[in-house]
Amino acid sequence: MLSETEAPSYYARARIDGKEIAATGVSKDDFLAACHGDAFDRAEPEAGAPFEGANSFTENQARDRAIAWGLTDVAEMTKDDNGIWRSSGKLDGADVDVAVDYKGNVVTSTK
Q1: Terminal CA-to-CA distance of the chain, rounded, Å?
Q2: Which domain of life is it from (predicted)?
Q3: pLDDT digits (tens, 9 = 90+) for 80-111
Q4: Judgement on whether residues 106 and 63 belong to the same structural domain of the protein
Q5: Of 54, 60, 69, 77, which has the fewest Cβ atoms less than 10 A away?
Q6: CA distances (Å), 74 to each of 63, 86, 91, 98, in order?
Q7: Which range marks the domain in which residue 84 is found?
């Protein structure tokens, strides 16, 4: 069984999708099925993202979107005056800035 520490992207995606994970963790079979599916694909953000607007996401919900997108070491997120959650983290080993808009677009830029 895999814990959230061992499979953070899986747990974040499950929370976004409203899926429950057993208290004992994720089974190897479920995790491998997700690996062979599209659970870890990075959706391209919409052109022009991140978009300004009223963002109803909590910090944890915005963080989950960043982690599900593949970021690690996501720092504390802050919502700017335009309603965009911003932070920093790592993507494929590189330091990046990340923005999550009210539509759920995850946009990164190399530091």
Answers
A1: 36
A2: Bacteria
A3: 999 999 999 999 999 999 999 999 999 999 98
A4: yes
A5: 54
A6: 7, 10, 10, 9
A7: 44-111
Cis before 45 (ω within 30): no
Amino acid at 1: M
pTM of this structure: 0.90
54-67 pLDDT tens trace: 999 999 999 999 99
Q: Shortest CA distance to 9 belongs to which of 58, 88, 65?
A: 65
Judgement on whether residues 72 and 50 belong to the same structural domain of the protein? yes
Which of helix, strand or coil describes residue 52? coil
DSSP one-letter string for 92-111: TTEEEEEEE-TT--EEEEE-
Mean pLDDT of 30-51: 89
Residue type, 107: V
85 and 51 both lie in a single domain:
yes
